[in-house]
Amino acid sequence: MRIVTAKVFWGEVRRISKGHIHIAPITPGNLQVHWPEGNVLLDKGKRSPEVDIPDYNALVRLEKV
Predict the structure, then answer these.
(1) Residue 24 in 3-state DSSP?
(2) 42 exposure class (CB count in 10 Å sphere: 0-12, 13-18, 19+)
(3) Rounded CA gap, 8 and 43, in Å?
(4) Looking at the DSSP assignment, which residues form a beta bridge with residue 5?
(5) Domain coverage including residue 57
(6) What gap in Å lies between CA 48 and CA 4, rounded to an integer?
(7) Spatial distance between the Cα atoms of 25 and 43, rounded to a whole number of angstroms
(8) Who's near 37: CB < 8 A, 6+ residues apart?
(9) In the chain, fewer beta carbons within 10 Å around the N or the C end?
(10) Whether this model's pTM surpasses 0.90
(11) Angle CA 52–14–62, to nearest 5
(12) CA 58 to chain CA mean position, Å
């Protein structure tokens, strides 16, 4: 496993989360996170108004620590 920093930006909002990654066989350019730890990377303002489901299509930048 490797330690990385995940950064997301939504206008003026910036969130940074540190954690471990495991390289797995998924489509290049994708990132899989687990709930509820991955919620910090999701924009709270982009939720389904009907059922309050988050928009899971967040853009994330990973950086080596």
Answers:
(1) coil
(2) buried
(3) 9
(4) 18, 63
(5) 2-64
(6) 30
(7) 27
(8) 19
(9) N
(10) no
(11) 95
(12) 6
Which tokens go with 47?
């939720």
The SS3 assignment for 44 reads: coil
Domains in the chain, number: 1
19: β partners: 4
| 40: its two tokens | 């910090």
Task: Please choose, from the candidates 65, 19, 25, 24, the residue with its C-alpha nearest in 3D space to the C-alpha of residue 39.
Answer: 19
Q: How far apart are CA 17 and CA 64, in angstroms?
A: 12
7-26 confidence digits (pLDDT tens)? 777 666 667 677 777 888 98
